[in-house]
């Protein structure tokens, strides 16, 4: 494999998504870019690199980023953030509330995260009428957004983290797969969205899940994304990050929620500003 090809591919992925492909990820190119090479009639990674260098090609660049993003996810992944949200929901859904409850899954992959949130909300409401709830789920990848919208999961996927009680309550068996119930699916709105772009049009949220995506970014990009997420939080809102992610040393706009691993709130002086 030509090292030029790697540098060109990594450059495109970093510019478009923020994801840093270090040299030890070179093996990913070989395994994941095969279908892209075939689709665009390119003989090698070196040829792909040369084409990317020649002139901007939106379709090709998109395909390269799609192929090289990691979409690993599971229902109620890591447990803790969902337990914390479940504790907050009775207050968030209290009858006196004015305005909708808004929750954002900001790198939602194939949908397990936003659907887990929707199950918690449905459980908390337990059929009683409540305030309007908006769950927005976004990801840079059009492919995973398409899959997430279908709400269809394999036996393996539902076995990872989904309690059997929730499987029975919120899914129907469809051949060898499981399909999420339409009522629950209707609670989530999916949209393709890049975290590196201006997010102000999304409005403010009571809770944001942005988990297991910052790990792929360099420090300046993490800071940029965290600052931009902080601006999307209501003053008493909560940001949930992945187990290997933190705000510490990256921004002073967010502070850890005491005693809750992975949960952050807007720093007071910033909330007031
Ligand atoms: C490993 S998955 C995490 C999914 C889920 N949040 C979880 O924790 O299970 C990371 C997701 O981040 C998305 N992603 C990567 N770069 C992104 C960006 N710049 N903007 C939005 N999403 C991005 C990928 O497409 C992928 O679906």
TrEMBL record:
Domain CheR-type methyltransferase: 1-273
Gene Ontology terms describing biological process: methylation
CDD domains according to UniProt: AdoMet_MTases
Catalytic activity annotation: L-glutamyl-[protein] + S-adenosyl-L-methionine = [protein]-L-glutamate 5-O-methyl ester + S-adenosyl-L-homocysteine
Main EC class the enzyme belongs to: transferase
PROSITE patterns (alphabetical): CHER
UniProt keyword S-adenosyl-L-methionine present: yes
Domain of life: Bacteria
A GO term for molecular function: protein-glutamate O-methyltransferase activity
UniProt name for this protein: protein-glutamate O-methyltransferase
